[in-house]
Design a protein that fits this description.
heterotrimer; A mainly alpha (362); B mainly alpha (355); C alpha/beta (257); A: 362 residues; mainly alpha; ABC transporter involved in vitamin B12 uptake, BtuC; 16 helices; 71% helix; globular; C: 257 residues; alpha/beta; Rossmann fold; four-stranded antiparallel beta sheet; 12 strands; 27% strand
Chain lengths: 362, 355, 257
Amino acid sequence: MSDENIRKSSGINREWPVLIGKSWIYLFLLGEIVVFSYYGTGFFSAKNFQNVMVNSITIMLLAAGEIFVIISGGIDLSVGFVMGFASVMSAKMMVTFYTLGWNQNLAILMGILIALLIGFLPGLLNGFLVTKMRVPPFIATFGMYGIAYGFSEIISYNVPITKLPPGVGAFGNGYLLYYLPGKLLNWFSQPVGLARAEIRELVPVIPNIFVISLLIIFIFGFILSRTRFGQHTYAIGGNIDAARRAGINVDRHLMKVYMVSSLFASLGGIMYVLRFVNGRADAGSARMLDSVVAVVIGGASLYGGTGSMVGSIIGTFIIAILETGMVNLGIPTFNKYIYVGTILIVAVLIDQLFPELVRRGD
Amino acid sequence: MNNTKTSPGLLVKFGKNWVVFFLIVLCVLFSFIGKGFFANNTINNILLSSSPALLLAVGETFVIVSGGIDLSIGFVRGMVAVISAIVMRDLYAMGYSAFLSILAGIVIGLLAGLLPGLLSGMLIAKFKVPPFIATLGMYGISNGIAYGLCSGFPIINVPQEAGRLGNGHIHYYFSGLGFSLFNRPPGMLDSQLRNLVRIFPNSILISGLIITVFGYILARTRFGQHTYAIGGNIDAARRAGINVDWHLVKIYVISSFFAALSGVLSVLIFSNGSHTQFSASLELFAVAAVVIGGASLSGGKGSIRGSFLGVLILSVLEVGFLMAGIFAFYRYIAVGSILVLAVIIEQTFPELIYD
Amino acid sequence: MIEERKPILEVKNIVKRFGGLVAVNGVSMEVYPGEVVGLLGDNGAGKSTLIKVVSGVYHQDEGQVFFKGQEVKINNPMDAINLGIETIYQDLALAENLNVYSNIFLGREKLKKALGCIDVLDHKYMLTESKKVLDRLGIEIPSLKNRIKMLSGGQRQSVAISRSIFWNAKFLIMDEPTAALGVAEQRKVLDLVRTLSAQGVAVIIISHQLYDVFQVAHRLVILRRGEKVGELMTRETNPDEVVSLIVGAELVENSKK
């Protein structure tokens, strides 16, 4: 390890700018928070940060799937409508089972399970087209974009699916912990028998669906950065021929990667149903590109081989905080599009101009 | 292998033109299912509804042949529509003549539309930002600007003449009374209007002319040749002395120009400048049309003729499904499937390279 | 010592045709453990074709391949690698976005249990083992945590070679190993070849640079128009003789007239 020591002792001065360069995205996020807290009243509050959490869920889930695909050197354009498909599918199932007279918890669980199972299909098909039929990822997933959208509109007859069991919203809009200052603390559900004044004082802590999403993302972040599966994903994105020559079953691996992406899109759809208590075909349509943006701001390259889960989460928060902060300040939302577009270009420009600052999670 | 060698003509010829055959099959199919598919009106409808997609697809063809992609054109179109409608409305309100305000609206709209292309071209050529990213950034920026200018509502109160120009037809024919060119015959009763036969919309004439010119440029000129060369092998193009950077900037400006043109025409046709989030799907349909028309996203392949056919297939699907009373969303499934199928056909039979 | 003198690789009467063209016509040769053989010839002489038969890219039309004394059928590159025949390609087949030790272990990552049940990458093990093989071959690379992208051409070559040695390759094929390198780096790669040879690894070098081949090869095999036209011990010949064999003796005599 002598070389390491030499580097440490001699290179401190040179490493500082590199360190700042590598972590500029964190600094940017911090700057965003500082600016919005300074100018917006009530931005820096527990309640508002929980808003940010809830608002970030969709982008974060889509980005978590997209990061696998982008690191492997592909792209998945279908995630937005696969999400819509899953939301329609699970809502439909929940309504069907519930009207059949099932216990509502069972109906909800079945809806979620079926949507997750069917949610693998678009990914399987994408993966098959990309690996076996040699269709470029952009085209294969773009085809799936149309197909998934068409199917979900047909299932939902072009209107949101409503009349879901009441438990959906109770869980989806619930919090992990309810805290009444100085009096009581209750897990998972709002304590019963409170006076109106007390309800107003009740502090809910951390939204349920945020906890679940983050947990799953954490698991897959671990898979990406610590396991052989993750390592092979980076290798395929870096040099697909080298990966093949090293004996990695590239085709099967890519199939799995597209299925992971589809799984996350379906999770996004399910979380949408839990939160908004309806299922709609266009639930995630606008978020597909946001998720790509989050991943790229987080340091991934569309050429494959670089990127990290932590980066995409930070990228997600940069967008989510921007949105919430602008609403908070009363800035018209259209500015968000301009800023996100600009940040995206600047992020890639920085990576292009200073290649030594490549940010990735290995 | 031997079979194709002994009869190289027919099979390959059929394969090369499968898009044409597919189009014909679609038309025949729909004329059986839907009533009056072959009526003059339907054909006008198909031409009209394909007009914006066609313009976007032509610009996108240049970009895709050069090996890039332009995701911003849908929102550039919206932005230009809003800008040119605002100019027309405000100048007209300030008391300028309808002709002058419309002209100014068109010119300013087209000029504003060149900017996004110039910017993304610079980012791609000079700063090596991947086209997907540069144009995605421009997508956000032009969306934001358009949305900011119109707050999500169409810009109305543009001079009436704008609509008359855009919705005019080259030839009007009224049985028994005669015909007129470019403008509706004056002094007609409302009851007579219904029997008026309109032939060939003006907007199609304008876009048709411009598309022909650029089709010629791509197929026959040095500019087009260089575009193919860059898409085929950018290093070889550079070594051959082509100014690749400058050429790429021009290509993204062309793409932006077509988006702008489509935006200006939309103002002339609908008499308002409208920008919605829906515009975003326009560029994806444009890309789909170009790829169905035989272009490859890795560059070096594609043609205006092919893209034209691709757009026609998408439009025939749209109008046909509508007339046949098929639930409109089957169209998305059909488009997605055809797109994937087109690429699979190409991958499986590489000898069928379009020209 | 007698055991040592059995050839590790032996090809007999290899013929490979492409349509009407005979690319390799009845070539036989053998390579002994620890021996460096230079395979020489003009463009189109059949060197690459012969090598691709051995590395599993092509399959011969006639002839046999023996590896460690046994006849083998090499149907694809993976077969060759599994036998212990490694080809170091010019594009090197490294993932540039991964670091040195990840590339050495690519596809055969060492895992350990986290929390007693989950398989995770054992970075520490892979780092120390990679370090060992690099030290053994006398390769200097600043940090094994550096991504391949940061390394020079020669360093990349060394990583690719260490990778195959680590996985017990006994037989290396190097196609133009010094072509894209600077002078100092060329020397390092040639030193590495000598180290490999000293450690009992057999090497076939294909190169246009006669000077390089003369420095490291023990024996030279010269092909012309798909046929073997000469086999010489390096110390018993000189570049002029080799050149005349490469271009064809009669040609040289003609030019002298």
